[in-house]
Specification:
binds iron/sulfur cluster; DNA Cyclobutane Dipyrimidine Photolyase, subunit A, domain 3; 509 residues; single chain; binds flavin-adenine dinucleotide; Serine Threonine Protein Phosphatase 5, Tetratricopeptide repeat; 3 domains; Rossmann fold
């Protein structure tokens, strides 16, 4: 054999650089389902099924196209459960002259494959991932000479370089961003009428994977009863069309709003399909831009949506690679509290958390503001060790892969990187949740109270966070308004808040 072409579970791109120059007569694709990927953190069953079902469909498509595929199934009795052990066995069996792969999306996995190739004394031809619009070199060029990195400037450069929403060298509509029209809460009666997202019935391959996952990982978190994620490139395309037709127009206006028992609202549900590389971000961006040009969706919604993909998604990847491997260990705020156990069960009397955690366990999904301003906010205010928060997020979402999850969790949400990712900690009291949702209306706590039996734990912990971190926060201009509000509190009030915060921490330790 000439080349063994390694394709990982989040590299399911039929146009992958790994397949450039592939010759079915001399080369073979290698794919392996390994248990370790589902156990290194305690992975949600829906995330395991999404990856494995997508891998099996992808392998079938390759075979149909005439490519030989050496595929190790999870339930194979010889499966040793580890990528590198499996790769070494495959190399022994197939005796390739060279290994080819697209650079792995996770730092440690990339290192493991590089080490394995060295041990096997085989050349590893590692190719750049063409899925992303910005290469590592593009980002280094952007970062060079800048004292501080900020998504907004990177995003503007990406708009210009790729000619997206640009007109005569200027941003379409005369501005880079129309967020003043976005990010509203729902009216009192709740979200406007909206279609439920396109359903993806499970075919025989997915059903088989569901059975295998239930049997192999019975005690893992989450449910498969409602499994409904696209696991093929065609499915991903349908999901994109469905979003553009039915939800994009309201995406901007309501992207930060939350409502009880409404997991999807106007979100795209495309992250898992994109992260597995079933869907090209260029196609997603082009479809959204077209919807603006043909009058189907307003500019504020389209720009807001494109910014998430062309801006945030590319930017967090760049941050990950720039600061790994040290990034994962950062804990700038010295947070040491353990993650509350109810994150794995959803059993809490805090309504907002119960709803966000309940849908996470049911579907493997929560939208951005639920992740940032409910589950993430609570652990930030409580002072949970960012590494534990990171492991939880990596485990429970169907779209979780480390390059995107880690900077969002440890950086944006927990401020563990001290501000590399976001210029200030995203903190708020329960009043923010009250403004952006109907959660508080049905809750036993009162978001307006910081002490006493009915005090909202978010509000108590918010003030406690400001008190604890006042010296650091004072240095940050973007926090000055919030810090100044502290002076409204008397010493007794501060003491009471800190006492109550301590008892919340003790009860959740
Ligand atoms: P939409 O709301 O419809 O947004 C459209 C697309 O924009 C998404 O599909 C996604 O690809 C991209 N996007 C939006 N926000 C971000 C962001 N902050 N960073 C990168 N891409 C973004 N996203 C993941 O894909 N995987 C993760 O593991 C992940 N972990 C997160 C952890 C935390 C603590 C936070 C705050 C955010 C995390 N995100 C993650 C980002 C974001 O929450 C999800 O991409 C989004 O909720 C996915 O749902 P959707 O496809 O319906 O997104
Ligand atoms: Fe959440 Fe506090 Fe509102 Fe209850 S009152 S839903 S705990 S923010």
């Amino acid at each position: 054999m000439r080349n063994l072409v390694i394709i990982l579970g989040d590299q399911l791109d039929s146009k992958s650089a790994a397949l450039d120059g592939f010759d079915p007569q001399q080369d073979c694709v290698w794919m392996a389902e390994v248990a370790r990927e589902s156990t290194k953190v305690w992975v949600h069953k829906a995330r395991i099924v999404t990856f494995l079902a997508a891998m099996r469909h992808f392998a079938e498509d390759l075979k149909k196209a005439g490519l030989p595929v050496d595929y190790r199934r999870l339930e194979d009795p010889q499966n040793q459960g580890d990528f590198i052990v499996e790769l070494e066995a495959a190399v022994k069996r197939l005796k390739p002259e060279k290994l080819i792969m697209v650079e792995a999306g996770e730092w440690q996995v990339r290192e493991d494959f590089r080490d394995a190739a060295r041990r096997l004394k085989l050349e590893l031809d590692e190719r750049e991932d063409r899925h992303f619009l910005a290469t590592h070199a593009d980002f280094e060029k952007h970062a060079k000479g800048r004292k501080q990195l900020r998504m907004e400037y990177f995003y503007r450069e990406m708009r210009v370089n790729h000619g997206i929403l640009m007109e005569g060298g200027k941003p379409v509509g005369g501005d880079w961003n129309f967020d003043s029209e976005n990010r509203k809460s729902f009216p009192k009666g709740g979200p406007p009428e909206h279609a439920t997202p396109h359903a993806f019935p499970q075919d025989a391959i997915t059903q088989e994977v569901i059975q295998i996952v239930e049997a192999t990982f019975p005690d893992h978190p989450g449910s498969l009863a409602d499994f409904d994620w696209p696991v093929t490139a065609e499915g991903a395309q349908q999901a994109l069309e469905d979003f553009i037709a039915h939800r994009l127009a309201e995406f901007g206006e309501y992207q930060d709003a939350m409502w009880t028992q409404e997991p999807w609202l106007f979100h795209s549900r495309l992250s898992a399909a994109m992260n597995l590389k079933l869907l090209d971000p260029r196609e997603v961006i082009a479809a959204a831009e077209k919807a603006f040009h043909n009058g189907h969706a307003p500019l504020a919604a389209v720009e807001g949506f494109i910014r998430q993909i062309l801006g945030w998604r590319e930017y967090v990847r760049a941050i990950y690679w720039r600061y790994m491997p040290g990034y994962v260990e950062m804990n700038e705020l010295q947070a040491q509290q353990p993650l509350p156990k109810f994150y794995w069960t959803g059993e809490t009397d805090m309504n907002c958390l119960r709803d966000a955690l309940g849908q996470t366990l049911r579907y493997g999904y929560a939208h951005h503001i639920q992740r940032l301003m409910v589950t993430g906010l609570f652990s930030l205010l409580l002072g949970v060790r960012p590494q534990e928060v990171h492991e939880w997020y990596l485990a429970v979402y169907v779209d979780a892969v480390e390059w995107v999850e880690l900077p969002n969790t440890l950086g944006m949400s927990q401020h563990g990187d001290g501000g590399l990712m976001a210029s200030k900690p995203y903190i708020a009291s329960g009043k923010y949740i009250q403004r952006m949702s109907n959660y508080c209306a049905g809750c036993r706590y009162d978001p307006g109270q910081s002490t006493g039996e009915n005090a909202c734990p978010f509000t108590t912990l918010y003030w406690d966070f400001l008190i604890r971190h006042e010296p650091r926060l004072k240095m940050n201009q973007r926090m000055s308004l919030q810090v100044r509000n502290l002076s409204r509190l008397g010493d007794d009030q501060k003491w009471e808040i800190q006492e109550q915060a301590q008892s919340i921490r003790a009860s959740l330790a």
